Amino acid sequence: MIVKRKIAVAITLNSAVVIVTTAVILSFFMGNKDVFIRSGPQSFRFFTTDSNVFSMIGAMIIIPFEFRVLTGRAEALPRFAVVIKFITTAAVTLTFFTVMFFLGPVFGYRLFLDHTGIFTHLVSPMLAFYCFTLLETDGEISFKNVLWALVPVLIYGSVYLTQVVFIGKTQGGWEDFYYLNLGGYWYMSATTMFIASILINLLIRALHNSSCRKLSAARHSGEIVYEW
Hints:
Order of helices and strands: HHHHHHHHH
Distance between the termini: 12 Å
Strand content: under 5%
Number of helices: 9
Structural class: mainly alpha
Mean pLDDT: 90
């Protein structure tokens, strides 16, 4: 059973993710434009948008179960909800790391952190990461789930590769807005992103499992109170 104080904070932060993401997506359909996005439908070409929506879905799935724990109607979060939250958190954390350590240093952070970008590239990913690694510490994540968390990246990567490389902008495909095919070296970029995704997934798993073990050890030693 999770400490209810942590669950209350998790509900608050997950709700913030849902509200902020919904507001950002709606703004794209109401005339909001940034450097890259020109319309609501076009926004879904970007992994940033997709991963944030994915993270929002993960939050929406787990919030009702967290309320059940908070109100005493359940003692633990269901396994499937925790795994889904892990997968969605991994996706949006990849967005954060890509901006912080690749796109930001190369093209300037202001380009990605202005306007709604501050939420989709920084705030929402950090909230999801914080929630899952420190608050939603109910059951450890297996290595098998690390592999499942690669699925969103592989699906998006396949679509991006097809649109950018195999079809190409001149034939109606997408422009290379993530600059992953510079010099025609898409295969090196794809390999790098795949490895980075695995490492990020392993990092999230390690932090989450460490928090789970610390909580379990504290309970067995009598150092914490179960309720509040």
